[in-house]
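Example 9 (inverse folding). The structure is encoded as follows.
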């Protein structure tokens, strides 16, 4: 069974591989799936700015490719001094696959700064219920 420390280690690696030449703000994200498998992602920017991809979106893509559908724990990591809560769009992306009580650990490379629940960050998500997304 992997631990929160394993998630932090994976987030550090992902953050180190981010492609963020425009913002100079590398982000790593890790989701733990209900299977226990950890999936990571980093932000990938583009010279056409709106085409950039957040770290959380990359981690979700890896999870879907890996065959998992339900998220039970989330880590988002950015540089020290920042409190990198998921952006609004990523809160909705995460809510597609995670229930309200899923913890979102907002981290720096040295550890967790604050833990929220996804329901605190996005009280009223649009659309599909988690049950439908997990079954689909
Ligand atoms: N970013 C993420 O990857 N995740 C977040 O939760 C917030 C912001 C990225 C998007 C962009 O590449 C950079 O951070 C600056 O906004």
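The amino acid assigned to each position is listed next.
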């Amino acid at each position: 069974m992997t631990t929160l420390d394993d998630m932090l280690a994976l987030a550090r690696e992902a953050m180190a591989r981010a492609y963020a030449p425009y913002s100079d703000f590398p982000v790593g994200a890790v989701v733990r799936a209900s299977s226990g498998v950890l999936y990571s992602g980093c932000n990938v920017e583009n010279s056409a700015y709106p085409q950039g991809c957040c770290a959380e979106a990359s981690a979700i893509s890896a999870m879907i490719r890996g065959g998992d559908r339900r998220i039970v724990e989330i880590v988002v990591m950015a540089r020290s001094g920042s409190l990198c809560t998921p952006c609004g769009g990523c809160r909705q992306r995460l809510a597609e696959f995670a229930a309200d009580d899923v913890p979102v650990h907002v981290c720096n490379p040295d550890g967790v700064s604050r833990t929220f629940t996804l329901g605190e960050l996005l009280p009223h998500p649009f659309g599909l219920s988690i049950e439908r997304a997990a079954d689909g």
